[in-house]
Specification:
- The structure is a single chain.
- With 358 residues, the protein is α/β, with parallel strands linked by helices.
- The protein has 12 helices and 13 strands.
- The protein has a 7-stranded mixed β-sheet with strand order 2-8-7-6-5-3-4, sandwiched between helices. A 4-stranded antiparallel β-sheet has the order 9-10-13-12, with helices on one face. Strands 1-11 form a two-stranded parallel ribbon.
- α6 runs parallel beside α7 and α10 packs parallel to α12.
- The protein starts with 9 loop residues before the first helix and ends with a helix.
- The chain binds pyridoxal-5'-phosphate.
- The site of pyridoxal-5'-phosphate has 13 residues, from α4.
Amino acid sequence: MNPIESLFRPAVLLEHEYKVTEHICQVKLNQNENPYSFPAELKAEIEADLLNAAWNRYPTVFPDHFIAQLAGHFGVLPENLLIGHGSNELIYSSLWAILGHGEKILIPEPSFSLYKTVANLCEALVVPVLSNPETLKMDLAELATEIHRHQPKLTILCSPNNPSSQRIPYDDLISLLKMSEGLVWVDEAYIEFSENQSLVDRLNEFPNLIILRTFSKAYGLAGLRLGFLVSSAEIIRQLRKTKVPFTVDEMSQIIASKILKRMDLVDRNVELIKTEKARIFAILKDIKGIQVFESDTNFFIFKVLKNPLKSVFANLVSEGILVRDVSSYTNLSGFLRVNVGTPEENDQFLTAIKTIVS
Ligand SMILES: Cc1ncc(COP(=O)(O)O)c(C=O)c1O
């Protein structure tokens, strides 16, 4: 260990920085983004508000007006909400509020990698529960057994899950909430694309429930960096203490506030994505060299059956198409992930993958 390294915590030295493989590709299907932006007229309307904003002033520590609007939109009280600079920020600040050295956090695997990273940084003890390697689904009985056995302080259930694209059925989530004495955190980043209903309506029944939502997927605002937690007022009060102040900037609030008033556009884009998703699935499942899984999200994962995975990925890149190599995740050896793009982008991907693996 060199002298500089010795000044850092061992948990930090063991971790790696978050990386997304960057390639300049015309067709970008690697980050589960919404392929649609908003109409130029709406952007022009918002531009005027951005120009009128006081760029020299701090935003409020907790954005009260925006929180009130969001609370109305989701039918909860403002004290049930915590807004952050993307859900990534809320994962960092909230896990830090909950997990201490050696305390248990139960995380299904594979799941969104940031959970494990932050848990490790907190020096918590990660209890993994593996998905079924054939179906990629989580087994209720196994989750319940492990929760019962380990009594984790926190259980993280990403449903529908990234990267497996599978949901935990709604009734299973309710059963797990009922039996857990610890906190249960449900990441609903992809809920708008799911067969499941959101758990937001059930908030008052479960004092241990924390729901994570994002503006980055269905709302098409990944560039702004806005995410929020929905939970009991008591939990939110604690989580506010570790939240980095002022991270929800004025500009993001102005834009998101306008978009919340144009849910017609958001809903239309979600419908377009769902329609494309059904079309892509029908085609992908007939391609011989891959095995695709039904998805509850805006992306698919598929197993490359014969060709070397790295060469399939590289061949797609050379065709100008960027997907995500998820083969290093538990149970996903040989898998790639691709999100639903525009119909033209999807066609380019479908033509390329068919040629490459056939
Ligand atoms: C399951 C899940 N949760 C949270 C996030 C982070 O989203 P945000 O853009 O709000 O930080 C992602 C991003 O891909 C995700 O897949």
